[in-house]
């Protein structure tokens, strides 16, 4: 049933993000927008087009091409050929963790916010990161004359190369610096890996930047704190900046009773996309890794913002879980009455709305409703195809005039300009990057 609740809270499918709304009550003075349904619809479309335009601007910046060129140069000849400490494929593979911001930047040519958020997450490795750092640090300089790399020892990782693939001057520099670790042992590691206690080091701080002609076109920072008595990480923040754009992902866990996760994409001081969840519950390792069905969130606050549009509301999650569990014990999956009962529970114990950020006016309320779809199935007894009805929870907008429309239909009609722009942009990306 936990997955059923998730499916209801999956809103604005372009972002593909689940959120839990808060137990904090909305301001009762919040009002509907005075705009008509069609005017609000046009405003949402304009909002989507504006977001797409920001994606295009970011894709056209110098960082993505420079990151691509750097990785291409590293593939030409052996970047580690003159570094005796990086002779094995395993060490080269481990070094890739330090190239994370470059790999993310390269992938932005086909922008996907969810993928960026996932890439910015921290993957703690059981391999000692200090050894990787000690083996890799030094200066790697591209030699255009014979397409090789020179290596000299140093206190940071520094890769010097041409900013364009046909360039002959090393006017681009990628640095990794400010490296700090938290020393082991980590008594919790055996629980995490189902193996032995880890006695090596874990990352505490990593910084990097990419410059072209002394101009910083990419900066990256990772910070992790280990304040728990058992040295479990209780917070981490990663940020990737491609001026004027910046991505930030942060998470924290306070004593296994509360946690928060957020992903923020900004342009200068303007928020383009914000996903934020803070919640109370059981955030212990054991509970988070239990089978689906375990409740680890009891209450929380959430924000979902896309440009000037946000989703806000209230969900009494504890009561919904209780009611849904009771319903499970007496109902059949896919039965229309069962789905209708689900919707009644959701609508009774939640209050969600799509609003404008700048004035907090409501565009539409969100409610659950029994949605039906049909599948054609061959019946071997009658030797004929038959249409079978299946029921699931759908989501419906309720406007100021009490008119309603399901979300799928709403976004399928009347967004011709936005859809055309997106299709043109996808075609442009395909021609530019995938038809070489």
Give your account of this protein's structure.
This protein is of the alpha+beta class and 436 residues long. Helix content is 31%, strand content 35%. It is built from 13 helices and 18 strands. The strands form 2 sheets. A 16-stranded mixed beta sheet has the order 4-3-5-6-7-8-9-10-11-12-13-14-15-16-17-18, sandwiched between helices. It has a two-stranded antiparallel sheet with strand order 1-2. A hairpin with a 2-residue loop joins strand 7 (201-212) and strand 8 (215-225). Helix 2 (37-59) runs parallel beside helix 13, helix 3 packs across helix 5 (100-107) and helix 10 packs antiparallel against helix 11 (336-348). The longest helix is centred in the first third of the chain and has 23 residues, at 37-59.
């Amino acid at each position: 049933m936990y997955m059923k609740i998730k499916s209801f809270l999956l809103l604005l499918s372009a972002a593909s993000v689940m959120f839990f709304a808060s137990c904090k009550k909305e301001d009762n003075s919040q009002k509907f927008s005075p705009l008509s349904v069609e005017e609000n619809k046009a405003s949402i479309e304009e909002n989507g087009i504006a977001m797409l335009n920001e994606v295009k601007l970011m894709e056209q910046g110098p960082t993505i091409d420079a990151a691509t060129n750097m990785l291409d140069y590293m593939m030409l000849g052996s970047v580690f050929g003159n570094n005796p400490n990086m002779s094995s494929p395993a060490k080269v593979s481990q070094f890739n963790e330090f190239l994370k911001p470059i790999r993310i930047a390269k992938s932005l040519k086909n922008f996907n916010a969810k993928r960026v958020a996932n890439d910015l997450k921290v993957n703690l490795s059981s391999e000692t990161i200090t050894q990787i750092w000690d083996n890799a640090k030094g200066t790697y300089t591209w030699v255009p004359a014979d397409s090789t790399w020179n290596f000299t020892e140093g206190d940071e990782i520094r890769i010097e190369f041409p900013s364009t693939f046909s360039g002959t001057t090393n006017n681009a520099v990628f640095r990794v610096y400010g490296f700090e670790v938290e020393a082991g042992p980590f008594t919790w590691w055996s629980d995490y890996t189902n193996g032995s206690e880890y006695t090596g080091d874990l990352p505490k701080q990593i910084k990097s930047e990419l410059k072209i002609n002394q101009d910083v076109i990419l900066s990256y920072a990772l910070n992790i704190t280990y304040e728990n008595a058992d040295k479990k990480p209780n917070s981490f923040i990663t940020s990737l900046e491609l001026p004027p754009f910046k991505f930030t992902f942060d998470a924290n866990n306070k004593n296994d009773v509360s946690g928060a996760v957020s992903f923020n994409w900004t342009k200068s001081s303007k928020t383009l996309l914000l996903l934020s969840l803070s919640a109370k519950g059981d955030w212990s390792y054991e509970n988070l890794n239990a089978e689906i069905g375990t409740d680890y969130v009891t209450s929380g606050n959430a924000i979902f913002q896309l440009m000037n549009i946000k989703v806000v509301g209230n969900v009494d999650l504890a009561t919904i879980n209780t009611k849904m569990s009771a319903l499970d014990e007496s109902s059949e999956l896919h039965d229309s009455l069962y789905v209708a009962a689900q919707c009644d529970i959701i609508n009774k114990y939640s209050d969600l709305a799509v609003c404008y950020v700048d004035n907090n006016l409501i565009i539409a309320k969100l409610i659950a409703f029994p949605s039906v779809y049909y599948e054609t199935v061959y019946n071997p007894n009658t030797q004929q195809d038959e249409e079978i009805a299946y029921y699931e929870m759908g989501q419906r907008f309720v406007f100021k005039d009490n008119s309603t429309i399901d979300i799928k239909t709403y976004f399928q009609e009347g967004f011709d300009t936005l859809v055309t722009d997106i299709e043109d942009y996808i075609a442009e990306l395909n021609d530019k990057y995938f038809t070489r």
